Amino acid sequence: MKDRGVPSYLRRSREGPLSFRTKLYQGIGAVPDTVKNWTFNTFLLLYYNQILGVDPNRVSIALAVAIVFDAITDPVVASLSDNLSTRWGRRHPLMLIGALPLGAALYLVFVPPSGLGETGLVLWLGGFAMLTRGLMTLFFVPWAAIAAELSDDYAARTSVMSHRFAAGWTIGVAFPLFVFSFVMRATPEQPVGQLNPAHYPTMALCAGILLTSGALATTLLSLREIPYLRQHAVTPEGFSLKGTVRELLRALSNRQFALIFVIVLISSAISGTTANIQIYMTTYFWGLTGEDLRWFALVSVGALAAFPLVAASQRRWDKKHVLLVCASINVIDGVTLVSLRFLDVLPANGDPRLLGILVGMGVFGAGISVVQGIIGASLVADVLDDHELRTHYRQEAMFSAALSFSGKAVSGIGIVLGGLILGMIDLPRAAAPAEVPADTILRLGVVVGICLPLLHVIPISLITRYRLTREAHAEIRRALSRRQAGAD
């Protein structure tokens, strides 16, 4: 009997490289999280504040509470998944449980019963947003852990993440295009489709179907991979909250991972603020309608062009240097458009040339973001090997959950800040774009288009401290192989 104090794992050896089918089936799992994030970030604050008339600060607080709850459940689900021992492995049972009711929970967020007062609406929003996020955690954390387990190869991991991002970007472009083309359509009574309350139940139904079907598809199609995923050689100790805290602290004891944790924490505070008021920028600052927003589906061109760049850039440079370049470009890209508007360089709102410029910059930004996202996810998988060498533990789910924990918890602060910003700039409720005062639009542009992007300089400076190079990772893999050969 092996010592329970030192974990031991078993898995079947894979013959040959990962197949395209394996990568595709794993990548499909990005669909639910992509749709949920876009739906929540784009519409929740707008729907409850501008359409239902709830105070933006109360909406933001309800959403922040849901996110903090979500963040707390991340390490709990991670510990449960990392220590689960069943005939179906450590990941798939939890994924299946989370997948089944996921779509229904999201649908209910956008269909509150009629007659609820403001307090009732806030409670409904908080409750079902919390349920949706909790079910997503139950599916997403073990699914994300599988991506890090499929291969130990430095380059193959990036390929796995590329397929994951490809699936996410495909639906991330197709679903908004569908929504703004066929659901959020203008009417004579309401020319701005995203401000029409009648459209939201249909949008939520479509999103809910995608959430459940995407989660079920990746769970069932990837069952064949279970023998190739690490399983416990000895049944681990039972789940406990004390054990969850201990495992989270063990993950954070790795200095390189702790650095990534802090970077994600700061970035999420900034991004959480930006994402939840970005729809206000497109609607009020740039004056775009639902029909205009359809054209942003063309950002997929930038995403598609980015995938071959990932492999090419990784061959020439370390992952850290690719991240630094991409993050720096994103900061510059983030402040350029609004600055040009304030300099009276851009065409006026409503001019087709402005839409073309915005879409063009979106294409460029999407390409950079895809490269940055794929390399960043692959980098975390490399840190897992360093962690195993130092501690003997494989904590794929906990590493994923720890990053998600930091991102979601601080993103909750970002949502509150988003509501405070809307209150600070004094944006009228239920206002048509033409009715918003010019000084309000000015404040919105300065905060969202200039101040927030510049804050990303902080996490960029931290990326320079990352030390796990290609050569260092290769030596780690050799040391792990020697240890495994000795154990055998």
Structure report:
The radius of gyration is 23 Å and the shape is globular. The protein has a single domain (18-226, 243-487), classed as Growth Hormone, Chain: A, CATH 1.20.1250.20. 73% of the residues lie in helices and 1% in strands. The mean pLDDT is 82. The protein has helices spanning 20-27, 30-51, 56-82, 92-99, 102-109, 118-149, 154-183, 200-221, 241-252, 255-285, 290-293, 299-316, 319-342, 352-391, 396-425, 438-454, 457-463, 470-487; strands spanning 9-10, 231-232. α10 (255-285) runs parallel beside α15 (396-425) and α10 (255-285) packs antiparallel against α16. It is built from 18 helices and two strands. The chain has a two-stranded antiparallel sheet. With 488 residues, the protein is an all-alpha fold.
Kindly name the structural category: mainly alpha
Instruction: Give the biggest sheet.
Output: 2 strands, antiparallel
Mean pLDDT across the residues is 82
Kindly report the CATH topology: Growth Hormone, Chain: A
Write the H/E string, N to C. EHHHHHHHHEHHHHHHHHHH
Total number of beta strands = 2
Measured as a percent range, the helix fraction is: over 70%
Task: For the record, give the distance between the C-alpha atoms at the N and C termini, rounded to a whole number.
Answer: 14 Å
Net shape: globular
Quickly count the domains: 1
The value of Rg in angstroms is 23 Å
CATH class: Mainly Alpha
